[in-house]
Amino acid sequence: MERGIQTIAAAVLGAVLLLVGILGFVNDPVLGLFDVNATHNVVHLLAGAIGLWAGVWGGIAASRWYNRVFGIVYAAVAVLGFAGVSAFVSLLALNGADNWLHALIGAVQLVVGFGMKD
Fold first, then answer.
1. Quick check: bond before 29 cis, omega within 30?
2. CA dihedral 106, 22, 6, 54 (to 10 degrees)
3. Which of helix, strand or coil describes residue 84?
4. Residue 100's Cα: distance from chain center in Å?
5. Alpha-carbon distances, residue 25 vs 9, 21, 79 (angstroms)
6. Which of 106, 104, 91 is nearest to 41 (CA)?
7. SS3 of 44, please?
């Protein structure tokens, strides 16, 4: 299977999100900075599993789709967190550090998904 920036980005983000999802169940806040709860951890596990699948087994097209969709989703989560949408913030136990990390993830995935060719 062909590899490139799309598959690498999807696989790396997927693996990191899986690890963070697992870590969140045993250590809150994660790394002493990022608040999580069970819902937030499950979201990380699902997003991570999809990213790892796309990057390792799904190929370039699936990885590009993942990078674009999750770039949009993470950017939206950051905007909602920064805006303080209380129902959303409390559902995922977001804090300021989470918002900045989600914005960074969203920006990187958007650049990769929409701006880079394989």
1. yes
2. -120
3. coil
4. 12
5. 25, 7, 25
6. 91
7. helix
Q: What type of residue sits at position 75? A: A
3-state secondary structure (DSSP) of residue 34: strand
CB contact set of 58 (below 8 Å; sequence gap of 6+): 7, 10, 66
Residue corresponding to tokens 């920006």: 107
pLDDT digits (tens, 9 = 90+) for 46-60: 999 999 999 999 999
> What's the burial of 38, exposed, middle or buried (CB within 10 Å: 0-12/13-18/19+)?
exposed
* Cβ proximity of 92 and 39 under 8 Å: yes
Residue 6's Cβ-side half-sphere holds a number of Cα atoms within 13 Å equal to 23
pLDDT tens for each residue of 23-33 = 999 988 888 89
Q: CA-to-CA distance for 11 and 7, rounded, in angstroms?
A: 6
